[in-house]
Amino acid sequence: MTALIEARNICVRVGGQEVLHDVSMQIAPREIVTILGPNGSGKSTLLRALLGILPVSHGAVSQRPGLRIGYMPQKLHIDRTMPLSASRFLSLPGRHTQAETQAMLTRVGVPEVADRPMTGLSGGQFQRVLLARALLTRPELLVLDEPTQGLDQPGEAAFYRLIDEVRDETGAAVLMVSHDLHVVMSASDRVICLNGHICCEGTPRVVSNAPEYRALFGLGTQGALALYQHVHDHDHTHDDHTHDHDHAHAHDDKHGHHHHAG
Amino acid sequence: MITIMRMRTMTSMGTIIMLDDFLFRALLAGVGVALATGPLGAFVVWRRMAYFGDSTAHAAILGVALALALDLPIGLGTLVVSLGVAVAVATLAARGWAMDTTLGVLAHSALAFGLLAASFVPEARTDLSAYLFGDILAVSRTDLAFIWLGALAVVALLVWRWSALLTATLNEDLAAASGINPDRERLVLTLALALTVAVALKVVGALLIAAMLIIPAAAARGLARSPEAMAVLASVVGAAAVAGGLGLSLHMDTPAGPSIVAVAAVAFALVAGLSRRRG
Fold it and tell me: Which spans does this entry mark as compositional bias, Basic and acidic residues (chain A) (predicted)?
């Protein structure tokens, strides 16, 4: 197996609900893969299943033996009651020398935060420290769950540039989750559209022209507008609407979902 | 008994006189408890488990009553029941029950059933207040050995799992991605908590154990710059509170357990005042 990590026909249930259905994917060395999908489409769930955090109810996930993964979770709330400096955070759980942590903080552009408490960092500094922690394990695969959450647009662009540089320097593959289209299009080798199952996948250009993608995100739109025009995927049957699914009903259904989309 | 006899013949007279002194035994017992409650209390504070400690401690009363009724060692009874309640809470919470409801139901029913059960056991009825409020001045050599063995076991457990516990406390996904099982670490803390409750029951009593866990750790937060420093300082504050509380009890003839907690609370207020002025 040349893939770093592979999922074969996995289904994942969370709280009795099937969140992912029959998903198969793999990541090759050095590849940047982005998982794209609306809120609640199971993006984070897929990452967590690939990492072995969540059990799969069907299918299997296999990792190349000895694979080193650097993981950056979506949300990390650090309780103010815990006194934790950035450099101490970087040594959890594996210890690193002060020289190593300082060098890595410098690499991600925040050399000044080493002795500062994590709870006092700005959003951008915090995300960079999280990335530094993921990089310290010298990963062959970086897994980033919405890494630019809470950053402004210039901050976001700078962060994606940093990830790109890191990939070139270390040769690590990158698997990330996003719901913003414009950034993803330029920064990825391959895009996977997810909505409970894989709707479509391929290079950014191929995917952006795929009808499934357009159905999921709207036609040629970006950002917030895309989410408003989000149309429910037709493979994705609703329990309460499965029978007499005629045109009028489908139309109602669509209108109903405008609320959820926003 | 044999070891104590041998100790008598082998150790110097000075040590024997010290251990014979009830006040010195009380101090040693309190310091032993503070050793365990310091680092464990830090986790209780970080994980917002304050009420969890409370319910485990309340359940210990049921353990006391059952142990007396079945003629078993009291330490064993409190350990088993505390552990049972702690595991029940963790299991129910994992199944999606609201944490405060689960704790409220289990803590107070365990306390109520404990008090009911104690009323059927004559011995328990007489010294029930000793278990509710602690009786540190009546600590025996056997109690002392039990307290220190338990406290050292708790500290050893926490030191051994330190990095994993800290990572799992910070974020369970982060821990799981690093190959740490968050459920296992939670179980380690639950076990340490049950052990600490069993050990501390005699010293501060079931009603004040949670205070001994939280107040020193909260005071240490204002002084510490790293998780490790906070854990150690919490033990130091706890030990100082024991010494101060015993002194207070001696001079003012106040109950020992509440005196210890009161001194810890004053220490917390001082630190909080200081760090506010500094910051």
Answer: 235-255
Residue B167 pLDDT:
94
Closest Cα of chain B to A83: distance in Å? 5
pLDDT at residue number B261: 92
Contacts B96 to A, Cβ<8 Å? 15
Q: Which of B96, B180, B227 shows the shortest C-beta gap to A93?
A: B180
Query: What structural domains does chain A harbor?
Result: 5-68+179-261 (3.40.50.300)
CB of B153 closer than 8 Å to CB of B191: no
B275 at the A interface (CB within 8 A)? Answer: no
Least confident of A123-127, A205-209, B155-159: A205-209
Paired strand residues for A14: A17
> pLDDT (tens digit, 9 = 90+) per residue, B203-244?
888 888 889 999 999 999 999 999 999 999 999 999 999 999
Average pLDDT over residues A227-238: 41
Domain B24-278: CATH class, spelled out: mainly alpha
DSSP state of A85: B
pLDDT of residue B147: 92
SS (H, E, C) chain B: CHHHHHHHHHCCHHHHHHHHCHHHHHHHHHHHHHHHHHHHHHHHHHCCCHHHHHHHHHHHHHHHHHHHHHCCCHHHHHHHHHHHHHHHHHHHHHCCCCHHHHHHHHHHHHHHHHHHHHHHCHHHHHCHHHHHHCCHHHCCHHHHHHHHHHHHHHHHHHHHHHHHHHHHHHCHHHHHHCCCCHHHHHHHHHHHHHHHHHHHHHHHCCCCHHHHHHHHHHHHHCCCCCHHHHHHHHHHHHHHHHHHHHHHHHHHCCCHHHHHHHHHHHHHHHHHHHHHHHC
Residue A81's closest chain B neighbor by CA?
A: B46
Q: Which residue of chain B is at minimal alpha-carbon distance from A133?
A: B174
Q: Which of B48, B49, B167, B170 to mutate to probe the A interface, most A CBs <10 Å?
A: B170
Residue contact A82–B227, C-beta within 8 A: yes
d(C-alpha B206, C-alpha B219), whole Å: 21
Determine the distance in angstroms separating the CA of B170 from the nearest CA of chain A, rounded to an integer: 6
DSSP collapsed to 3 states, B9-49:
HHCCHHHHHHHHCHHHHHHHHHHHHHHHHHHHHHHHHHCCC
Position B125 confidence tier, pLDDT thresholds 50, 70, 90: low
Q: Which of A92, A95, A116, A145 to mutate to test the interface with B (most CBs of B within 10 A)?
A: A92
For residue B176, give the chain A residue with the closest CA: A53
Q: Which of A69, A76, A85 sits opposite B171 (nearest CB)?
A: A76
Of A190, A189, A235, nearest in space to A212 by CA:
A235
Strand partners, A62: A6
User: Which whole number is the average pLDDT over A45-60?
Assistant: 90
List all residues of chain B from 214 to 233 with a beta carbon under 8 Å from chain A.
218, 221, 224-227, 229-230
